[in-house]
Amino acid sequence: MIFEFPIRVYIEDTDAGGIVYHANHLKFCERARTEWLRAAGIDHYLLAGDFSFVVHHIDMHYHKPAQMDDLLHVTVTPIQCKAASFRLRQTIWREHTLIAEATIDLACLDRTLKPRRLPAHIHALIVRDISA
């Protein structure tokens, strides 16, 4: 299942030329991932439990520039789920134009920063969205 979150580009997101600074695409993806969980009824994990997610690997490709005042749509699509990690595909669109796409691997850690199993309700959410 694909989750979509709108993000408006503000001047703070751009470089001196008015183009979105490359690192801000990662911030847009992070916001969409947080809102994907929130839409599924899961509060921010730092407030809700004894675990956290960390990005283990990102493979991002930039296709077109985004500019100040663009309305972007960032998608989140779960594509793989393991016991203590999961993989998402995220895309950033301006209308029908693909701006950037990423494959992101996230690991679940306990409070001591050691790997732990995904909480059952989050594992079920990811597996459900992969199957949809």
Please compute the radius of gyration using only Cα atoms: 15 Å
Calculate the terminal CA-CA distance, rounded to whole Å: 5 Å
Give the spatial strand order of the biggest sheet.
1-3-4-5-2
Q: Name the poorly predicted regions.
A: none
How many DSSP E strands? 5
Q: What coarse outline follows from CA principal-axis ratios?
A: elongated
Helix and strand run: EHHEEEEH
Task: Compute the number of helices.
Answer: 3
**SSE-based structural type:** alpha+beta
User: Could you tell me the strand content as a percent range?
Assistant: 35-45%
The main sheet comes to: 5 strands, antiparallel
Percent of residues in helices comes to 25-40%
Q: Return the average pLDDT rounded to an integer.
A: 92
Name its key features:
3 helices, 26% helix, 132 residues, alpha+beta
Q: What is the strand and helix layout of this fold?
A:
Elements (H helix, E strand, L loop, with lengths): L2 E6 L13 H18 L5 H4 L2 E12 L8 E11 L3 E10 L2 E14 L9 H12 L1
Antiparallel strand pairs: 1-3, 2-5, 3-4, 4-5
Report on the structure:
- With 132 residues, the chain is α+β, with helices and mostly antiparallel strands.
- It has helices spanning 22-39, 45-48, 120-131; strands at 3-8, 51-62, 71-81, 85-94, 97-110.
